[in-house]
Amino acid sequence: MTPDQRTKLSQGIAFGVFFQYLGYFIKDVATKRTPPYVGGVIGIVMGIIIFAWGCSHLVAAKRLPKWANFIGLFSLVGLAILWWWPAKPEEAASQR
């Protein structure tokens, strides 16, 4: 994993979790069908998207199949699955 991928993974996870929980909090304290409630829902969706973006860098670093990016949408459970998924081995130049 390159330092750039590690930075983007860390940022995506941190900001994604922050926005998800902030959205849950705003949604829970607001009454239904008011602008703060809608803002909370938008925060949750934005957090999920940012989290999935961060997980996509883990998928790229481990050279997993492209469809594995979808697993990042499952938030922390998806991160655990991707973290423990074995990385695809690098092909040696002599084997080509």
Using brief descriptors, characterize the structure shown:
96 residues; mainly alpha
What would you say this structure looks like, in words?
The protein is mostly helical and 96 residues long. It has one domain. Helices cover 68% and strands 0% of the residues. The protein is built from three helices and no strands. It has helices at residues 3-29, 35-62, 75-84. Helix 1 (3-29) packs antiparallel against helix 2 and helix 2 (35-62) packs parallel to helix 3 (75-84). It is elongated, with a radius of gyration of 17 Å.
How is the secondary structure organized here?
Layout: H1 3-29, H2 35-62, H3 75-84
Helix pairs in contact: 1-2, 2-3
Summarize the structure.
The chain is an all-alpha fold and 96 residues long. It contains three helices and no strands. The protein has helices at 3-29, 35-62, 75-84.
How many helices in DSSP terms? 3
Mean pLDDT: 89
Helix content: 55-70%
Spans of at least 5 consecutive residues whose pLDDT stays below 50 are: none
What share of the residues does DSSP label as strand, in percent?
under 5%
Structural class of the secondary structure composition?
A: mainly alpha
Largest sheet: none
Indicate the radius of gyration in whole angstroms: 17 Å
Order of helices and strands: HHH
Structure summary, number of beta strands = 0
What separation lies between the terminal Cα atoms? 23 Å
Whole-number tally of structural domains = 1
The shape is: elongated
